[in-house]
Q: What sequence folds into this?
């Protein structure tokens, strides 16, 4: 088989690409797993290939990767609807297997779980994945204002949660 | 395309404050901690290079597939055009043949018409010559000038001079010619 032509690296030099890949790949695998993907590694790798295949560069590659992983994970889950599986086998979006929740302590996990999946997803991207509001808006394909609203509502929800459990004074 | 995302680096302070505040509410440390810190291990580097190679291979395949698709799309068009061309040539050939046949037929008709006309002229000349020789009967009774309607003067019809004329080639019912009297 003839070797492929050497093309310019679309993401800077090899060293930069390796560093970025090492940083983003585990995040994307974790993100796919949270969406209940059966093969999160494959999905994360596919997202990288799709990004590198593009002729037109994207403005926010990180957001693009997250968005692709999200879409691929949801697409992977879609055929399950037509199969006679028990509901337990279908994982709710944003509530994937608990493996990655080990990253957070029990208290954080409990507080996160108390939120609705929509708020939890936004909050996860903002706080844990450390993404900007614009990036989250691109990933979820919603307006930035909606992201902000969700974050503020999640914050209010967390405050109420702490007030009812009497934990606010501890933070104060 | 750069990996350095301006959306993250140009984040307003309010968003950073909000993030820290949420961290506090969740019980996470306020300092930004990366939960996914990972060094570029040889395995990851190999994987990254493999994925990049795969992307190039797919691009290469997509380009080749694009060329084949274009060819496949153009082939029926080319065949149709070729077929039309052949059909057109055949039709033109047929039309040329027909035009030649028509021209030949026209020439033949013209020749026939000319021959017929010549024949008619000859027969007419012969007939005229035949009529110039007076017959004995005609010599005995030369044609008289008769006044038509001489016996019917009472009628309002104007008088007409009737002159007998020799039989012409054209059919005439009376073999006479009516001339109005002055």
A:
């Amino acid at each position: 088989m003839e070797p492929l032509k050497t093309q310019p690296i679309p993401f800077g030099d090899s060293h930069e690409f390796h560093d970025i890949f090492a940083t983003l790949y585990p995040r994307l695998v974790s993100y796919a797993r949270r969406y209940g993907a059966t093969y999160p590694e494959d999905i994360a790798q596919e997202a990288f290939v799709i990004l590198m295949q593009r002729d037109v560069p994207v403005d926010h590659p990180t957001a693009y990767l997250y968005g692709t992983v999200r879409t691929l994970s949801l697409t992977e889950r879609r055929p399950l609807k037509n199969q006679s599986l028990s509901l337990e086998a279908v994982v709710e979006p944003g509530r994937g297997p608990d493996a990655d929740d080990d990253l957070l302590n029990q208290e954080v996990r409990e507080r996160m779980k108390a939120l609705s999946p929509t708020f939890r997803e936004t909050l996860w991207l903002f706080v844990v994945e450390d993404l900007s509001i614009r990036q989250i808006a691109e990933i979820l394909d919603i307006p930035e204002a909606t992201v902000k609203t969700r974050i503020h509502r999640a914050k209010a929800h967390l405050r109420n949660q702490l007030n009812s459990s009497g934990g606010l004074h501890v933070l104060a | 395309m750069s990996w350095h995302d301006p959306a993250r680096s140009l984040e307003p302070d309010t968003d950073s404050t909000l993030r820290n505040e949420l961290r506090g509410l969740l019980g996470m440390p306020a300092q930004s901690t990366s939960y996914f810190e990972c060094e570029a291990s040889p395995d990851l580097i190999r994987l990254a290079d493999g994925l990049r190679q795969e992307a190039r291979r797919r691009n290469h395949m997509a380009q080749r597939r694009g060329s084949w698709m274009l060819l496949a799309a153009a082939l029926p068009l080319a065949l149709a055009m070729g077929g039309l061309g052949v059909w057109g040539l055949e039709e033109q050939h047929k039309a040329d043949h027909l035009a030649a046949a028509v021209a030949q037929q026209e020439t033949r008709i013209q020749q026939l018409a000319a021959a017929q006309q010549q024949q008619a002229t000859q027969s007419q000349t012969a007939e005229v010559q035949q009529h110039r020789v007076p017959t004995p009967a005609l010599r005995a009774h030369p044609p008289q000038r008769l006044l038509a309607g001489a016996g019917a003067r009472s009628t309002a019809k104007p008088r007409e001079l009737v002159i007998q004329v020799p039989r012409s080639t054209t059919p005439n019912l009376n073999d006479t010619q009516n001339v109005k009297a002055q």
